[in-house]
Amino acid sequence: METTKRPISYETFPNSGQVAYFSMEIAIHPSMPTYSGGLGILAGDTLRSAADLGVPVVGFTLLHRKGYFQQHLDRNGAQTEEVQSWSPEDFCTEEPARATVSIEDRVVTVRAWRYSLEGRFGHIVPIYLLDTDVEDNSGWDRGLTDHLYGGDTNYRLQQEIVLGMGGVRMAKALGLNINVFHMNEGHAALLTQALLESQVGGGPLNAYTDADIEQVRRKCVFTTHTPVPAGHDRFSTEQSIRILGGDRTARLEKLGCFQDGLINMTLLALRFSRYANGVALQHGRVSRQMFPDFDIQSITNGVHAATWTSAPIQQMLDQQVPAWRCDNLYLRNLIDLPEPRILAAHARAKEELLAEVASRTGLVLNPKVLTLGFARRAATYKRADLLFADPERLQQIAEAAGGLQILYAGKAHPQDGPGKALIQHVVEDAARFSNDTLRIVYLENYAWDLGAMLTAGVDVWVNTPRRPYEASGTSGMKAALNGVPSLSILDGWWIEGCIEGVTGWAIEDGANDAEEAQSLYRKLETAVVPLYREPAEKWGRLMRTTLAYNGSYFNTDRMVRQYTRNAYYPGVLVERLAKVVEEEASFAD
Ligand SMILES: *Cc1c(COP(=O)(O)O)cnc(C)c1O
Questions:
Q1: pTM exceeds 0.70
Q2: Labelling 385: which of 155, 176, 205, 302 has CA 20 to 30 A away?
Q3: Which residues have C-beta atoms less than 6 Å from ligand 1?
Q4: Domains along the chain?
């Protein structure tokens, strides 16, 4: 539904260059398996909002020709993985430009496929997917852009050279004018080295000055996503010398990019960035503790509203606050939405979800019954099995609620043994504890489509990470945009999003898993279940405040505006805004 006659585009803002957004994974299209989870979804949502807002951004990522895997679970919950090949030609256009990088003394040729991501008003954000499967390259090098997070650390470092250094050189070969390089996580940190080498004009690798480094820093922006030390990419000196080269390794050592004898990609990105941020208020704090030498800000994540709201919710929003599509802040005006409207829209989303469950599993669930959702990567810190800490108590809760349905989903990384064991454990528990009152289902192959259906269709979104390991989390934001409250640990975004009884409920901090499980049960017994049993209008009020308060804030429309003002173009906004106002005035004439 068109709501404004003319878009106000950020294209009228900085006219001197573009932002290049680098990410190892980007969820571009539901049928392109070029992402694994939260980081890729965030990158895709960022670019979708940039396209809507007209921010001059281009994306760089790897092609991942063999895709991230499709998950199969057998009856006992044992995971097997299947390669998801796809055809770039079906979605993208090959660019004639070529670039080269050196890897282990070999020259590797890189090409790029362009995907045109179109925003709401027709602004295009081109995404370049880098590909080494070209004739010039040897067999090994042709496979460098096949697997997302596959192979060993040697493979990973080689991929990071293709992404960071290949990306910078490809931008040049494409004739792009880039004045901001945004590294989405440390995987792209080597782009700083390509910029430095270009800055010194391809001379000897040790010939650079502080002024050269400052020139690079002026162009670079970095977002860290990982509050777990082991989550930061690190490589040994031996690997670095062998793959990246001795001169580069010596330079990186001299510039302080090593920690504990390992080259640390987060440190490298921080050293070369003029602006750095974590992805939620608390994650900024945690990151500053991890890297006390750096000024690390925070910009809280969001999700792309029009991508993650169900069709029934979108119809309701279009009638109620049509301007939400141009400016997500208008979702705040839902504060006086009549309760029956949101209840009716949600009921339709829930029916769609339950129909999907039935078609996948043959299990027919009851749309009237309280339904909890829990879906995320099966990392052990997320404690997917916390709900089963006391099965008898869970059964009592189900009885008090007049029935309880719990939907699970999530993949484990193929090399993550403990993650796979956790899935198996949850699947076993689901079978053991399910009965007529309590139904627990584990759904296969959690990905974009299923994620959207789950977050829109359940009644409560549950999240149980161990603090402080959740940098932000975004699935609860998708739920909020559909009016679905969260019941979560106060970690990541939920510290900012939780208003007790208004947008959901907090699981209180405990000294250990058992105590936090107690709090989870207590909240279900004393808050969630009693409210669900009240006349539906009360639940409708909760959904309304969840959508109005959290939907209006935890979206990438707000987030991209923050990146634009604080990271990409600090200071220029006031001046440019004046120009837009002027143009608006002349347009009105
Ligand atoms: C949104 C989403 C994620 C990230 O959600 P978290 O809350 O960070 O777990 C991961 N995978 C899929 C498929 C998603 O849709």
A1: yes
A2: 302
A3: 37-38, 41, 376, 446-448, 451, 473-475, 478
A4: 17-298 (3.40.50.2000), 307-554 (3.40.50.2000), 558-588 (no CATH)
